[in-house]
Specification:
This protein is mainly alpha-helical. Helices cover 44% and strands 9% of the residues. The structure holds 2-acetamido-2-deoxy-beta-D-glucopyranose (4 copies). Keywords: Membrane, Transmembrane, Transmembrane helix.
């Protein structure tokens, strides 16, 4: 500002017009600065107040299921030997609990432009012949369950699972693929939730980690409901398992 006023000797003639020009220039510059500052504040406000769903959309690759994302804080109960419907040696209850986790149904997927032999729904089910697909969370849970079944294979009959009712060599191939699937998923999500160590008499090291920590989680029930509501209601596709071919 000062530099333009400093040039004012009088308000007349050539120099006056020049001064008017310079002060307009300065005001224009100041106005743009103000607009810029205000929009930055507004923009930051927008970022800080984006709804969970808006943030989820920003932080995820595209998925039609993103609309089902809800967040809630969950306090994990995960100490050594903590029992849950999913833990321990196989029983009718554990098998049912795990079965309900990975939905073995197929879903209408997205359109893909690339020329690949995508599996399409018959026009009797879908006039636009949508491609058949699934969602990674269910594939990852399937993988965890496959590894679990492999661990307990001497204690339960898992021969209905095609991945385990295969040659020894192929079973290892499937198991290894599932271990890689979970490694990729875990490193991808990079859970930063901290846990603490505490002293504990009677343990081998005299200490133990406290894994009963609070996590911010996507509501799995909400995702499951969405997936079930959008599944293909057709026996041929409902029976299809997530994996393997
Ligand atoms: C684990 O829990 C079971 C049943 O609650 C108990 O019988 C067993 O001794 C526990 N094992 C260890 C290592 O704490
Ligand atoms: C796929 O594309 C067709 C043709 O453009 C469209 O009619 C159909 O709704 C699309 N399907 C999905 C799942 O987006
Ligand atoms: C396991 O595989 C064998 C050989 O392919 C087949 O005959 C049998 O029916 C399968 N068992 C089950 C329970 O699917
Ligand atoms: C462990 O045992 C020692 C000696 O008996 C005792 O002083 C200490 O308080 C115990 N620590 C915990 C965490 O229980």
């Amino acid at each position: 500002m000062r530099f333009s006023y400093a040039r004012v000797p009088s308000m007349g003639g050539e120099r006056g017009r020049e001064t008017v020009f310079y002060s307009m220039y300065a005001y224009g510059w100041l106005a743009s600065l103000l607009i810029w500052i205000i929009s930055m504040i507004w923009y930051r406000g927008k970022i800080n107040t984006c709804s969970n769903i808006d943030c989820a959309v920003k932080l995820s690759v595209y998925s039609p299921m993103i609309e089902a994302v809800r967040y809630h804080d969950v306090h994990f109960e995960n100490s050594l030997n903590h029992s849950s419907p999913y833990s321990g040696f196989p029983t009718v209850e554990t098998e049912e609990a795990w079965d309900n986790l990975h939905i073995g149904i197929k879903l209408r997927a997205l359109n893909k432009s690339e020329e690949e032999p995508w599996k399409r729904l018959p026009s009797s089910i879908s006039p636009s012949q949508d491609i058949v697909g699934g969602f990674e969370v269910f594939h990852q849970l399937y993988c965890l369950d496959l590894i679990r079944q492999f661990v307990y294979r001497d204690y339960w009959d898992y021969s209905e699972n095609r991945a385990l009712n295969a040659t020894r060599e192929m079973v290892w191939v499937y198991i290894d693929q599932c271990i890689q699937t979970l490694r990729l998923a875990l490193t991808c999500h990079g859970d930063t939730t901290p846990y603490l160590m505490r002293y504990k008499n009677g343990t081998r090291t005299g200490e133990e980690p406290d894994f009963d920590t609070t996590h911010r989680c996507r509501d799995f029930d909400s995702l499951t409901r969405w997936a079930k509501a959008h599944s293909i209601r057709n026996p041929e596709f409902e029976e299809a398992k997530n994996h393997p071919a």
